[in-house]
Amino acid sequence: MKTQPLRITPVNLLGLGVTVLLLTTLLYLFARHWGQFVQYCINFQIYMHRYLVMYLLQQQNHQYSGGIMLVLGSFIYGFLHSIGPGHGKFVITTYLVTNRQQLTISRLITLAGSLMQGVVAILFVLILAVVLNLSMGDLSLSRYWVEKGSAAFIACFGLMLLWRAGGLRIRKPRILKALPISSATPLITRNRHDQDCSCGHKHLPDANQLNGGWRNALWVIAAIGIRPCSGAILILVFANAIGMFSWGVVAAMSMALGTALSIMILATLVHHLRERFIRTGGSLIGIYLPQAARIAMMLGGVLLILFALVLFSAVIPVSANGDFIAAGC
Q1: Taking a C-beta distance cutoff of 8 angstroms, is the pair 79, 261 a contact?
Q2: Cα–Cα distance measured from residue 235 to residue 53, given in angstroms and rounded to the nearest whole number
Q3: Between the CA of residue 124 and those of 11, 44, 78, 236, 329, what are the distances in Å?
Q4: Cα–Cα distance between 170 and 194 in angstroms, integer?
Q5: DSSP classification of residue 320
């Protein structure tokens, strides 16, 4: 079987050029207006917190429309909150760019990680505030160290990607010395031992082998979910303070569903952009896909480590009066 010759058409080059130019422009605009964007997200979060507190107080006063609005408002808050800067979007984007995973599995991973965020927030407040009855200052201190620990976990995930990408070695095929070769066999057939030969060996790992399987998926789910949503913690703490902890749980899970929907949309977009980029590259990307996947995995690991360092240094300081006061609750 003859190997198809590598063809790079002007259309493929033009498509790659346009894609790179578009991504570079978006990255430049994003970096230039990052400060204003973060400040807007913080102000909007405080604004939404006040409405959620109002709905929670309405439910406490038996205004049952407040409960419905609390669920809807929490879902919208989770959806819009995840649009702003956050670790979940960075982790899932890095994972999908560096791993050619199926779209359905990517969505399930995103859903599981987002729901885990809500569960971790509930367990955090349930154990520390309800069971142990810690003070507001102690809760703020605990939240501080949980966020520090989650940043360290994301860095470990980045190190794991680097280890996997660097540890995968392409083994050279063994030479079968005892294999008899007929003198009638053409010389080109004797020496041919490549990816398309029928010797039964695998000479190069395909792209699916670089995904890491279910273990890598669990790493992604844990990296997303181990850092609880700050908005969910604030609502849960305030709900517990006024004796409405069960409604705080409902609000937290509604936020988690809203976050899941938003990140699933992002995951779908990243998936289609990645596949379009691979199709645009044509045979050039197809031939070097395993090597490109390993390089992308290394870059993704480095980016996750750098992002974890930013998260570690940017954790909200401890507040003796309670985090929910500073957040407008």
Answers
A1: yes
A2: 7
A3: 54, 25, 18, 9, 18
A4: 13
A5: T
Q: Give the angle 99-1-4 at the CA atoms, nearest 5°.
A: 55
Mention every residue, 6+ apart, whose C-beta is less than 8 A from residue 204: 170, 195, 290
Average pLDDT over every residue of 302-322:
79
- 226-260 pLDDT, tens digit each: 888 878 888 998 899 899 999 999 999 999 999 88
In angstroms, rounded to a whole number, what is the distance separating the alpha carbons of residues 292 and 298?
10
pLDDT of 288 strictly over 70? no
Question: Which of 254, 237, 244, 241 is closest to 78 using CA atoms?
Answer: 254
Please return the burial class of 54, using the count of CB atoms within 10 Å of its CB with bins 0-12, 13-18 and 19+.
Answer: middle
Per the listing, tokens 């005892």 go with 178
Q: Does residue 280 contact residue 97 with C-beta atoms inside 8 Å? A: no
Tokens representing residue 214 in the block: 């279910």
Q: Dig out the tokens for 19 from the structure.
A: 């894609």
For 189-224, b/e burial (b = at least 16 CB within 10 A) is: eeeeeeeeeeeeeeeebebeebbbeeebbebbbbbb
